[in-house]
Amino acid sequence: MSPSALARAPQKTHASGERTVVVYRVPTHDRRDAQKLISAGYDLIERRQGDDLFVMGGPSTASGLRRLGFSPTAVETMHKPLAHQPRAARTGGGVDDTYDGGYHTVDAHYAHLDQVAAQHPDMAKVVTYGKSWLKQNGRGGRDLKAICITKMKQGDCQLNPQAPKPRFFLMSQIHARELTTGEVSWRWIDTLTNDYGKDPDITALMDSTEMWVVPITNPDGVDIVAQGGDNPILQRKNADDSKGGSCDVNGQVGVDLNRNAGTHWGGEGTSTEPCSEIYLGPAADSEPENTALEGLFRQLYPAVRTGTGDSDPAPVTAKGLMISLHSDASMVLLPWEADHTIHTGNDAALRALAGRLGSLTGYQSGQAGEILYDASGGTDDWTYDKLGLASLTIEIGDSDGRNCSGFTPAFSCQDSYFWPKMKPALLYAAKQAAAPYRTTAKNH
Ligand SMILES: [Zn+2]
User: Fold this and answer.
1) Packing angle, helices 179-194 and 106-119, rounded to 10
2) Which of 14, 167, 223, 359 maximizes the CB count within 10 A of its CB?
């Protein structure tokens, strides 16, 4: 490098409170490479292109990857603030309280739920189902909130697994930094309540089915994200700092709620390092966000699997469907997400459902380990394992090259690109809640 080039080289300044974030493309040659990266502590983000995986880290991450035998190339560099004390950043705003160009804060989401229920008492009911980790520990934090949406009749929206109508459950932002997912839930709630009596498809769905939505599954995490304002903090996990509160630039505090559920806990795709992005927590279901959510699931769905073995099926007559939204791999994933070498007892139907949602979105579909990487202790594995509930993950992504990729795409992508793509998929999924296991590769 010539002296003048050296002078122009970007300085590695670490202004206090800021972190240089680099996304690396990492070609792999062996399917065990994903686990190798995870075991070495790298933040393997939810993205894959062919045999290329993607790691998020800092400027020094490349040399570490090379020492492991990989050949990373930097594809994106960002300057992101570090989280301050993990605390609830209450802004006190209403439905218009936003950050980063329009993304809704937790306050806005919760105000939105209350507003929808107040405007449509015949169609919506808000349920508080628990407390976040910070609230549980008396450090601020949040209630955990769900909304039930249907054209109300006697017995609807009750916390009773024997409900008159089948139930479609949608959840988002269990990984706080996956901002698109909460915005999709917001639009789903508005579409259902605004278009009843106008759109025949929505009207029929609202008359026949209960739609449950948890827009912000991890509110403490989303509060940290929103602290960054127009430069969101990329917090993925919750705010539980009991196993280590100082992770500096090399990681984040918190437990990965999508690795903490009590199903195949501690398996592939998890880390026991508290600062790792995939830290599984000190015990299965250690986190209040998960125990509360699982309690809600148990109040909404009967346990119908015929046994507890990995291949024991739910009966073909079972009702109900659950989708957890993530970003941004452009994939539809089905259980078992923990281990792609084992299949559920409802594999054909779940695969057909995922395939249909894949064709509606243009996304790939399969078990996580077949197309992304194995990941244990996730929500959809738990709901299928413990309840026999038909469960899927949709990794919302920019599969069409619309400049809408990443965790924090331009807010305009939400209305122009993601919602038009996701609406038909959610409508299809909600309709299948009546008999998800009757889905075959042909009958759609
Ligand atoms: Zn995620």
Assistant:
1) 10
2) 223
> In the CATH scheme, what architecture does the domain 98-225+260-438 have?
3-Layer(aba) Sandwich (3.40)
Fold for 16-81, please state it: Alpha-Beta Plaits (3.30.70)
Separation of 338 CA from ligand 1 center, angstroms?
Answer: 14
Return the percentage of the chain with pLDDT > 70, whole number.
93
What residue type is assigned to position 104 of the chain? H
Residue 350 Cα to ligand 1 middle (Å): 20
pLDDT value for 249: 65
CA of 326 to the centre of ligand 1 (A): 4
Report the separation in Å between the CA atom of 121 and the middle of ligand 1, taken as the mean of its atom positions: 33
The 10s digit of each residue's pLDDT in 161-210 is 999 999 999 999 999 999 999 999 999 999 999 999 999 999 999 999 99
Looking at residue 441, its amino acid is A
CA distance 167 to 430: 8
CA 308 to ligand 1 center in whole angstroms: 26
CB of 168 closer than 8 Å to CB of 209: yes
Encoding tokens for residue 165?
Answer: 């109508």
Spell out the domain ranges in the chain.
Answer: 16-81, 98-225+260-438
Give the distance (Å) from ligand 1 centre to CA of residue 191: 24
